[in-house]
Design brief:
The protein has about 325 residues and is an alpha/beta fold. It has two domains: about 130 residues, Rossmann fold (3-Layer(aba) Sandwich); about 150 residues, Aspartate/ornithine carbamoyltransferase (Rossmann fold), CATH 3.40.50.1370. The protein has eleven helices and nine strands. The strands form two sheets. It has a five-stranded parallel beta sheet. A four-stranded parallel beta sheet has the order 2-1-3-4, sandwiched between helices. Helix 1 packs across helix 11. The protein is globular. The protein starts with 15 loop residues before the first helix and ends in an 11-residue tail after the last helix. About 45% of the residues are buried. Bound molecules: phosphoric acid mono(formamide)ester. The site of phosphoric acid mono(formamide)ester (CP) has 9 residues, from helix 2. Phosphoric acid mono(formamide)ester binds next to helix 2.
Length: about 325
């Protein structure tokens, strides 16, 4: 089944059936990735441009791998070495790329709403790979795949997102996606890093991390987004770690079933201690593996019927 939207711009208003389709297809693609030759011809006639205006390790490489595993033609665009540095606008840049006959744009941009702008003014399909502090839908979907692998489903699962919620695109996409799937979503952090408006979305707010740990099945731990926040939102990194850091000591009070996620990059010793990040309750590298499968699923479902094949592979 194709998705209800031509683009994947965020998870707000994405129906449950579409999230289910993406997660189910990702399971099949993960099996393909475990084969001796992890490649299928599914997107052989599809051209994808990866347009990154912001740094990335996981998302950029995982999209490129997903595209190559599906046999798409791939072009990587870096803003610093392009004519954007000479003053060309985003829309002009993409219209010029489209004149070279591309099908799909994967874009990361520091401006919230940039992918929506692109989708409005260009004819290609657009996948949001993170827009400022707004949404990061593919990250949330790979988080959800990892949670589903552990627990089987989302119904009434207690998932708490810990850290800098105000500046996090991962938090918002997770809240939308997980609530759609029936999970109970909470956030935890200092009051200065949590928008009060989240209560209106039905999100529980914890200011005490030990209370959050005691009442959660999953902790999704976020980094402090120094690059997006003004100074003075908390006294110091050291104090943040003391009050909100997920440490081995704190984990002694957690249930053995508590699962630790982190989207990366991790600032070890700040939001998460290395011993916990590398410990038995961490599924952080499983998230990274699932990122390739989830992105293959999204590329496949968005390309269905237009250049892309209808079956997953062979
Ligand atoms: N999780 C995530 O988006 O990581 P990158 O910034 O390295 O892509």
């Amino acid at each position: 089944m194709a998705l209800h939207s031509k683009h994947l711009l965020g998870l707000e208003n994405v129906p449950k059936v579409d999230i289910q389709s993406i997660l189910d297809a990702a399971v099949s693609f993960k099996e393909i990735l475990e084969r001796p030759i992890p490649k299928v011809p599914t997107l052989r006639h599809v051209t994808v441009v990866n347009l990154f205006f912001e740094n990335s390790t996981r998302t950029r490489i995982s999209f490129e791998l997903a595209e190559k595993r599906l046999s798409a033609d791939v072009v990587n665009f870096s803003a610093s070495s392009s004519s954007v540095s000479k003053g060309e606008t985003l829309i002009d840049t993409v219209r010029n790329l489209e004149a070279m006959k591309i099908d799909l744009v994967v874009m990361r941009h520091p401006m919230p709403g940039a992918p929506q702008l692109l989708a409005k003014h260009c004819s290609s399909k657009v996948i949001n790979a993170g827009d400022g502090s707004h949404e990061h839908p593919t990250q949330a979907l790979l988080d959800m795949m990892t949670i589903r692998e552990t627990f089987g489903n989302f119904e009434d699962l207690r998932i708490t997102i810990v850290g800098d919620i105000s500046h996090s695109r991962v938090a918002l996409s997770n809240i939308h996606g997980l609530q759609t799937m029936g999970a109970k979503v909470a956030v935890c952090g200092p009051p200065t890093l949590i928008p009060r408006a989240l209560e209106k979305l039905g999100v529980k707010i914890y200011y005490d991390v030990d209370e959050a740990i005691a009442n959660s099945d999953v902790l999704n731990v976020l980094r402090i987004q120094k690059e997006r926040q003004e100074d003075g939102l908390f006294p110091s990194i050291r104090e943040y770690h003391t009050l909100y850091g997920i440490t081995r000591e704190r984990m002694k009070n957690a249930s053995r079933e508590l699962v630790i996620l982190h989207p990366g990059p991790i600032n070890r010793g700040v939001e998460l201690d290395g011993e916990v990040a590398d410990g038995p309750q961490s599924v952080i590298l499983q998230q990274v593996t699932n990122g390739v499968a989830v992105r293959m699923a999204i590329l496949f479902l968005l390309s269905r019927g237009e250049g892309g094949r209808d079956e997953l592979g062979s």
